[in-house]
Amino acid sequence: AQSVTQLGSHVSVSEGALVLLRCNYSSSVPPYLFWYVQYPNQGLQLLLKYTTGATLVKGINGFEAEFKKSETSFHLTKPSAHMSDAAEYFCAVSDRGGSEKLVFGKGTKLTVNP
Amino acid sequence: DVKVTQSSRYLVKRTGEKVFLECVQDMDHENMFWYRQDPGLGLRLIYFSYDVKMKEKGDIPEGYSVSREKKERFSLILESASTNQTSMYLCASSLRLAGRSDFGPGTRLLVL
Q: Distances from the Cα of B20 to the Cαs of A17, B7, B99, in angstroms?
């Protein structure tokens, strides 16, 4: 069975600082990997995804993530945090069979301090 | 852009009531999903459907049922609402093999 672990339920950074949100997965075969963002009182918005090809994936709003198979990790980074990045971030995996069922981590709430 | 809409943003119901949550997508997606979101638990899959009249249980189906009579509409039914079903419910849809799901805005349900 697949599972996702997000290290740190809350992360706080200063505006302009590096954002690093950690995600490790467990899967018998390399899955599809996703990061979603949720702003207050809204649904989930896809930030980026890894399916095949280049392991460094660029997403919206300046975020990127790197798939490291040897470490079973898919950490999300942004070089310089902006106040508008304050939100909850979810890492998720799905199998490659086409069902698109997602298994989510428990989420990391990002606070950006002025 | 895919649009996934949910019938209500906020809903208040009484224990024992039958509750219907409706989800509609406008992009002819085969797959539709219902997730439940609780603080500290992330999102968990309740049910999903990969075609009209087809459904499969997710990780937490107890106390819920679903209906998909038309491709664009997927309903979640709480047969007899209980206070432990107070939660945020998110609907999603996807094309098969697309490698992504699109989410609705969510319905925040309070069961008193």
A: 45, 9, 29
